[in-house]
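Deliverable D2.4 — example input (C-alpha cells):
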C-alpha cells in the first residue's frame, strides 16, 4: 500500500517515522517547504514529490493530512476525490463548512478514515476509560479535565508567533488545539447535550487566538464536565478527575499514574504506565491501528463522522463564549 504524507512539520515527521517503524516501505511526502521535504527524504530515505499534482499521479492508496488546521478539509477532500483512505490530524477542521460533503464523499467511495486521537492510546486514559466502563466508581456525576503548556515551549527553536496555534487564519487557538480533551471525555462519558464557555486572549503572548478557555459540558447522562485549557502554564500540566457516587478516579500525565478510590473497599488503588513507556508510543499505536483498519481488521476509533461530533462541541464552545449563552448540541 502506498502512503502519501502531506505536511512534513513536526507531526508529519512523527507519522513518517512511525510508518517506517511499522514496516511500511512505499511512503511519499509533500510539503510546500523544500527544506522540510529534503529533511524527511534524507532522514527516512523516502521519496518526495514537488507538487500535489505529481503526488496524485503516483496513485497513493492512503493520505495522511498533517498541515495547519485550516487546510485539513480541502486537502482531505482532494485526497478522497483521488480515492485515498484518510488519516487527518486533529481537529477535522476549524469550521463546519465543507464537512458534510466530505462525509458523503468518503461514505460513497467506501473510504477508511481516522482523525488524530492519540490520547485514546495513552495507557492512563485507556485505563480510566476501562474503570468508567466497569462502573468501578459507580454512577458518574462529574469530571474535571485540564491541560496547559506555555505556547513558546511547544516547539523550541521555532517562532511561536508563526505557528498555526497562534494564528486565527490557520485555525489556531487553544480550544481546537486541545480538542483531544473534548474527544476523550466524550469517549468516556458519552454524548454532550449543552455547552457553556468563557474564553479569551488573556496573556501577553503575541497571538491573535484565544489562549485560555473554561468550558462547561452537560452530558446527556446528566453528568457535568469542566474543562480548563490554556497556552500559559510554564510547566506542562495534563490531568483528569472523574467523580462517581461510589468513588473517584484521578489521572495525571506527568506522574504517569491513575489512582482511584473505592468507597466499598475504602482504599486507593493505582495503575502506573508500563515500564519504559514514552509518549511516541501513543502515536505509534495510533498508526498501527490505522493500518489494521485499512486491512479490515479493526474499525476506526474516531472516523470523520465521529470527529465531526467532537468538532461540533468545540465550535459550540466558541459560539457560547462569543455570544455569552448556553449552546445546545443537536
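Example output (designed residues):
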Amino acid at each position: 500500500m502506498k502512503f502519501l504524507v502531506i505536511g512534513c512539520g513536526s507531526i508529519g515527521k512523527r507519522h513518517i517515522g512511525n510508518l517506517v517503524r511499522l514496516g511500511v516501505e512505499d511512503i511519499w511526502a509533500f510539503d510546500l517547504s523544500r527544506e522540510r521535504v529534503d529533511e524527511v527524504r534524507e532522514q527516512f530515505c523516502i521519496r518526495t514529490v514537488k507538487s500535489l499534482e505529481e503526488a496524485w499521479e503516483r496513485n497513493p492508496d492512503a493520505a495522511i493530512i498533517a498541515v495547519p488546521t485550516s487546510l485539513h478539509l480541502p486537502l482531505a477532500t482532494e485526497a478522497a476525490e483521488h480515492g485515498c483512505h484518510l488519516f487527518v490530524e486533529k481537529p477535522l477542521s476549524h469550521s463546519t463548512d465543507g464537512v458534510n460533503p466530505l462525509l458523503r464523499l468518503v461514505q460513497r467511495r467506501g473510504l477508511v478514515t481516522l482523525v488524530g486521537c492519540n490520547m485514546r492510546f495513552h495507557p492512563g486514559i485507556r485505563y480510566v476509560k476501562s474503570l468508567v466502563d466497569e462502573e468501578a466508581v459507580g454512577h458518574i456525576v462529574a469530571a474535571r479535565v485540564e491541560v496547559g503548556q506555555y505556547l513558546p515551549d511547544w516547539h523550541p527553536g521555532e517562532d511561536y508567533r508563526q505557528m498555526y496555534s497562534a494564528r486565527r487564519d490557520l485555525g489556531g487557538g487553544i480550544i481546537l488545539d486541545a480538542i483531544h480533551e473534548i474527544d476523550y471525555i466524550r469517549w468516556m462519558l458519552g454524548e454532550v447535550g449543552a455547552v457553556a464557555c468563557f474564553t479569551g486572549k488573556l496573556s501577553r503572548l503575541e497571538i491573535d487566538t484565544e489562549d485560555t478557555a473554561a468550558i462547561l459540558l452537560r452530558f446527556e447522562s446528566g453528568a457535568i464536565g469542566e474543562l480548563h485549557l490554556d497556552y500559559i502554564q510554564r510547566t506542562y500540566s495534563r490531568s483528569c478527575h472523574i467523580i462517581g457516587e461510589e468513588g473517584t478516579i484521578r489521572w495525571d500525565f506527568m506522574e504517569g499514574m491513575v489512582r482511584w478510590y473505592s468507597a466499598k473497599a475504602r482504599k486507593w488503588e493505582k495503575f502506573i504506565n508500563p515500564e519504559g513507556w514514552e509518549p511516541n508510543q501513543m502515536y505509534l499505536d495510533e498508526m498501527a491501528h490505522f493500518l489494521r483498519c485499512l486491512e479490515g481488521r479493526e474499525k476506526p476509533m474516531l472516523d470523520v463522522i465521529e470527529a465531526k461530533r467532537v468538532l461540533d462541541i468545540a465550535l459550540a464552545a466558541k459560539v457560547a463564549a462569543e455570544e455569552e449563552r448556553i449552546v445546545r448540541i443537536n
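The radius of gyration is 20 Å.
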